[in-house]
Specification:
The protein is of the alpha+beta class. The chain contains 12 helices and 7 strands. It folds into 2 domains: about 160 residues, DD-peptidase/beta-lactamase superfamily (Beta-lactamase, 3-Layer(aba) Sandwich); about 130 residues, 3-Layer(aba) Sandwich (Beta-lactamase). The longest helix has 17 residues. The structure holds glutamic acid. The site of glutamic acid has 11 residues, from loops.
């Protein structure tokens, strides 16, 4: 049996196992996202050797939401060096992704770039340094995904703009502390559009395969990020990427990963593969129930994790 066939069989058995007893609720705080079919499930693996294996709705696009924060960080790292660390930390927050509490007593410096506050500061950096941040960012994502048809979903971005009271509070608080330099509306516009990007598991796995491949595109070998920066991005995913469930995720899955409230999770086994999974039903921490379990089964059944 080839490696690809074995992986295909593994994914097929995981698909059956995690979809037999659906639990969890679809995120409804962004009205435009509440109407997604809760029973979708897709999973896709892209290896650093360029093999692609997927199951279920792996080719259907969904809202990547917070998964975008990894890509925003990667894009910002092409523009700025260690000075970013003065404005956003790299410690887990232990608080929900949209919490304001820590920001107040830590004087507007977000704990890490994987929570909303941190990603908003990263957007502020991009707004300051790029001529056309939205189209620049979209081109960057398209390049990593190897797909020119990836788009923002403007209705999701608008829906969030209209009800994003907490994010507006977060950015105002940080502006008050001097950690936002640009215009608040411009920065939020980039943030909401970045979150609204629609991608499939196949496209996400391809995108994240660059983080599994020491910063080079799997398809062409072109270097996008240095191995050192890639290592750091993977480290931030590992410690901060799964909301305040990063410990549980390390314990059960053992891969650097980032989740989003759209029900997606992208994970990386450095030197081996990237995997993306999508199932919209979320647990109380905001992570996909079936997605989490699917990744646990994948690392259990393949016997591979970073630990
Ligand atoms: N756009 C969402 C927000 O700002 C992203 C949340 C997420 O996926 O964690 O609330």
């Amino acid at each position: 049996m080839t490696e690809t066939t074995a992986l295909q069989d593994t994914l097929a058995s995981i698909h059956v196992a995690v979809t037999s007893d659906p639990t969890g609720e679809v995120a409804s705080y962004i009205p435009e996202m509440a109407c997604v079919n809760p029973d979708k499930f897709g999973m896709h693996v892209t290896t650093v050797g360029g093999n692609d294996v997927g199951v279920g709705n792996n080719n259907e696009r969904f809202s990547i939401q917070s998964i975008t924060k990894v890509l925003l960080l990667a894009r910002a790292k092409l523009e700025v060096g260690s000075e970013l660390k003065e404005r956003v930390g790299v410690e887990p927050s232990g608080d929900p992704f949209n919490s304001l509490v820590q920001l107040e007593y830590e004087r507007g410096i977000p704990r890490n770039p994987m929570i909303n506050a941190g990603a908003i500061v990263v957007c502020d950096v991009l707004v300051e340094l790029l001529d056309d941040p939205k189209s620049d960012y979209l081109s960057f994502v398209r390049k990593l995904a190897g797909c020119e048809t990836i788009e923002f979903d403007s209705s999701v971005a608008l829906s969030e703009l209209l009800c994003g009271y907490r994010n507006r509070a977060i950015i105002n608080l940080m502006k008050g502390f001097g950690n936002i330099r640009g215009d608040i509306d411009e920065v939020l516009d980039l943030y909401y559009h970045a979150c609204s990007i629609a991608m499939s598991c196949r496209e996400l796995a391809r995108t994240f395969s660059t983080f599994a491949n020491a910063g080079s595109l799997v398809e062409t070998g072109e270097r996008i990020l240095s191995p050192r920066r890639t290592k750091r991005i993977n480290a931030v995913m590992q410690t901060c990427g799964m909301y305040d469930e990063a410990g549980e995720f390390a314990f059960r899955v053992g891969l650097p990963a980032k989740s989003g409230v759209g029900g997606g999770i992208a994970a990386v086994d450095p030197g081996h593969y990237a995997v993306a999974v999508w199932s919209p039903r979320l647990n109380s921490k905001g992570n996909s129930v079936a997605g989490f379990r699917a990744l646990e089964l994948l690392t259990d059944q393949t016997g591979r994790s970073i630990f």
